[in-house]
Input
Amino acid sequence: MSPKTLYDKIWDAHVIERDDDGTCLIYIDRHLVHEVTSAQAFEGLRNAGRKVHAPDKTIAVPDHNVPTTPDRVNGIENEQGRIQVETLEKNALDTGIHYYPVSDIRQGIVHIVGPEQGWTLPGMTVVCGDSHTATHGAFGAIAHGIGTSEVEHVLATQTLIQQKSKNMKVEITGKLATGVTAKDITMAVIGATGTAGGTGHVIEYTGEAIRNLSMEGRMTVCNMAIEGGARAGLIAPDETTFEYVKGRPHAPKGAQWEAALTWWKTLFTDEGATYDKILTIRGEDIAPMVTWGTSPEDALPITASVPAPSDFQDGKVDAVARSLDYMGLTPGTPLAEIKVNTVFIGSCTNGRIEDFREAASILKGRKVADGVRVLIVPGSGLVRLQAEEEGLADIFRDAGAEWRLAGCSMCLAMNPDQLEPGDRCASTSNRNFEGRQGREGRTHLVSPGMAAAAAITGRLTDVREMM
Amino acid sequence: MDKFQKVTGVAAPMPLINIDTDMIIPKLFLKTIKRSGLGVNLFDDMRYNLDRSEKPDFVLNKPAYRKSEIIVAGDNFGCGSSREHAPWALADFGIKCVISTSFADIFFGNCFKNGILPIVLDQAQVDVLMKDAEKGENARMSIDLEAQEITTSDGDVISFNVDAFKKHCLLEGLDDIGLTLVKKQSISAFEETSAQARPWV
Ligand code: SF4
Output
């Protein structure tokens, strides 16, 4: 048999039918659903008199619209948001899919809940009406976002009609320097490839620096694969993966665990398999990163300065001029001199326990700078519990930060946690588009440690100075 | 999805080029949880004043065109954002067919998924149909998908091309889901095999 990549192996295991032109009918193992992109899909299903094909393989959780303050038990004030959540709840109950309501301690961001509950497993196909579904690729699962029509298609058939993507390998060699994290890896990759660098490809992340990451870190890396234009990100499962999965509520047990493990251990790229594209970055060369513009590819080491439009070529010249104008930045300004008045630590990129440990290690015994608002938002209720048990929440509160309930929060301007016009935020989320965190809000993407450092100094700061 | 029968109806002339999806259904209406009911907001900005009164000059507000089932449009219809709300709004209004010299890709595909037939013709042919549409209520145009022919109110016949598979789906009322459900046996067979191979899924 000819050598296969990891992507090839998982893909092949899910092909139901293949047309002559390469179009495949693919089986979907897990379907994750949230309130924003599912209502029309359920409506379409009802209108056509169709049923959810596999309710047992479908989970739903509200996250985008939910407030992160304790008063959310009284319901959501914004009418449209409330209707979306109520509709999700009704659809979930009507169709018998697994549902985690806002009142459930397990509720959180769908991409954090899935892995936490053991729904996401190696070798699976996982989809969700949300682009950051790529997160689940960290387990060695093919995971990607889909549109509302496709959500309906998966609900009705548990399949998707798909063309296979190309294979791309991104190798991060060697070891990371102190203060450099998974977030910096993924930002450095996008900085190197651009937001279209991965277009048409599924990226497999490999190399020593990736292997050394925890599952939390791997999820951070895969989460932003989509920001580099890739359809999905993948990391081959290994002992770290199995260790994380074992014992989760919906992970296999007993003999099934052994059988699963046997198969999962075959999920790696064979010697001699070829990729359509390869990028190699030395782990030692990656520094703590920060974005200066309004695209995730506008990323530089914290030690750099704001670039000028003339540093770029073609269409990017105008785009940079526009984004510097939006961001209110002058070329030549050292990034570490940019003042912020808001810090957000959370999201499906950096809302897991390890992220909060990292932030706490910097905030411990220190105080948030005057005039800086710091929101720290766990990705799930269980992460919140754990952080409280480990004393992290106390460290945050003592430092002067707000410790919230679980949800997407300030990652996007859809719930009450939003930037005001002109606010400047050091954020651990994944998108710095115009208006993403609130109208005329300015976003600088960073790692949790970098965000914590900025909270203390009130400006973008090299976290290594605080370690 | 309804089967696409022969359409005989009034065609609204919209000679403007680059009618984008934001004109077809403005962003404001995307927060809905339904795909039905968008017809009242079709072309909302062009159709209504700020006080929600109708703009009498807009074609679909004119008595002759209020029940249009066909739109004859300028070049590059459906460009802009990929929102599927655009064909939903058109379909909900009652539009079954849009004729133009070209369409934006995603919109073109989304039309078929929602039972709307987009027809591409050359400029001279679109000009003929535009003139015919301008005649108003009494000029009923006829579109026969099976025969791939448009008949003007004067009886002139213009033939058009359509992808054979897409044509089949429209005629049979098969959407993607319907097509996949035809393969139900393969799906069940796959599920049985994989339940043995990967029982933990
Ligand atoms: S945290 Fe942000 S990126 Fe993640 S699912 Fe929520 S809104 Fe999307």
In short: The mean pLDDT of chain B is 93. Chain B touches chain A through 25 residues (CB under 8 Å). Residues 7-173 of chain B form a domain with the Aconitase; domain 4 fold (CATH 3.20.19.10).
